[in-house]
Amino acid sequence: MAVTVMAAAVLALLLLSSSGPLGPRLLSASPPEPVGLTLLDCATEKGAVCLDGTPAGYHLQRGASSGSRSWLIHLEGGAWCNTVERCSNRTNSMLGSSNYMKPLQFAGSGILDSNQQLNPDFYNWNKVYVRYCDGGSFSGDAEGRAQDGSTLHFRGLHIYEAVIDALMEKGLANATQALLTGCSAGGLATLLHCDGFSARFTQEVSVKCLADAGFFLDAKDISGERSFRSVFDGVVQLQNVREVLSKDCLANKEPTKCLYPAELIKSIHTPVFILNSGYDPSQIRNILVPGSSDPDKSWLSCKENIQNCNSTQIQVLDGFRNAMLNDLKVVEEKEDWGMFIDSCFTHCQALYGISWNSPISPRLKNKTIAEAVGDWYFGRRQVVKYIDCEYPCNPTCSSLLPSP
């Protein structure tokens, strides 16, 4: 049976022609077969294992016709674990063990969909969904000891490298076009690995990266504390992610600071497309208004639905958005980069058909996300850098868009 990755959001889409990400397409007469899980060979020897030591894996759907030598590799998201206890808890789920991973349905999942009408630029590419089971954005290289005495394997970097090695043997080495993507923690991983991914290919290959909902801010919460830093700091210390951080940044700043996208994008040379909401509910709930900063729960209703926010709260959200736009000024200076920063209350938009390319998809400059990404990747427009106005100005923002 196919797994639905974000069940709550899928339930909101039951009346639509496509669900997602990676859930069944409900109105299709005969949905395609789910894509099976491929476990890495010799995973233990390569250190490419999940938190519990089980082999990591991925789902590969072969391309066809004109897309047979084009590859899209997507890195799954799922937050982080920054303490031994939290990482131990993940071993009882698909975020920490391949024992819980099942086949996935790509139909209705935006950029992974094989329907030409819904995904005209990438529908027939080789598409890979890399499972996330290390809790460190595919970047760690360490071991720990759980409270029960078992070993915790922080081997995200080994997982990433082993998957790419395996794919190179399956045809990626002969690619003429390649796009590395990721959502949320996977979007951060995309930024961390973008240049290394590009370095695998000759200059004749078109290689680019798409970071979806991965532009996390180093911002103060409403109480004035940078409480979210403890998450990234814990990941850096526990999982040893220094290997993937910018050497220039590490020479001048503490490692935790170097894990933030605002620093990462300064040193990336490969063309990148930043897809993000300026009002991302995941960041609002975890960075701007974590529970510790709102003891009287006056923000609870607002965090659940931006339509419930009062005018004072909206001003705070606008300030958070402006901080993101300030960090993204670096992108404005990079000619071959692109971005789509909408004002919708949503998270991880490329993996949902409803967000990616549907009648109610968000639009900027009258372009859907799919159209904007396609224009950028294939060079159909010289500049693809779209920034939305402040909430609630965009009528194409639907309440049905996914919110974690």
Task: Give a verbal description of the structure.
The chain has a single domain, classed as 3-Layer(aba) Sandwich (Rossmann fold). It is 29% helix and 13% strand. The two termini are 22 Å apart. By secondary structure, it is α/β, with parallel strands linked by helices. It is built from 15 helices and eleven strands. It has a nine-stranded mixed β-sheet with strand order 1-2-4-3-7-8-9-10-11, with helices on both faces. A two-stranded antiparallel sheet has the order 5-6.
Notable characteristics:
404 residues, alpha/beta, Rossmann fold, two-stranded antiparallel sheet, 11 strands, 29% helix
Give me the secondary-structure topology.
Blueprint: H1 7-11, E1 38-39, H2 43-46, E2 57-61, E3 70-75, H3 84-90, E4 126-130, E5 142-145, E6 151-154, H4 156-169, E7 177-183, H5 185-198, E8 206-212, H6 229-239, H7 247-252, H8 255-258, H9 261-264, E9 272-277, H10 281-288, H11 300-304, H12 311-327, H13 329-332, E10 338-342, H14 353-356, H15 369-378, E11 385-387
Parallel strand pairs: 3-4, 3-7, 7-8, 8-9, 9-10, 10-11
Antiparallel strand pairs: 1-2, 2-4, 5-6
Short description:
The protein has 404 residues and is of the alpha/beta class.
- Shape descriptor: globular
CATH architecture: 3-Layer(aba) Sandwich
Strand order of the largest sheet: 1-2-4-3-7-8-9-10-11
Number of helices: 15
Classify the oligomer: single chain
Element pattern in H and E: HEHEEHEEEHEHEHHHHEHHHHEHHE
CATH topology assignment: Rossmann fold
Helicity range: 25-40%
Percent strand = 5-15%
- Measured distance between first and last alpha carbons: 22 Å
Mean pLDDT: 93
Low-pLDDT segments: 1-19, 24-29
Q: What profile does the largest beta sheet have?
A: 9 strands, mixed
Give the structural class.
Answer: alpha/beta
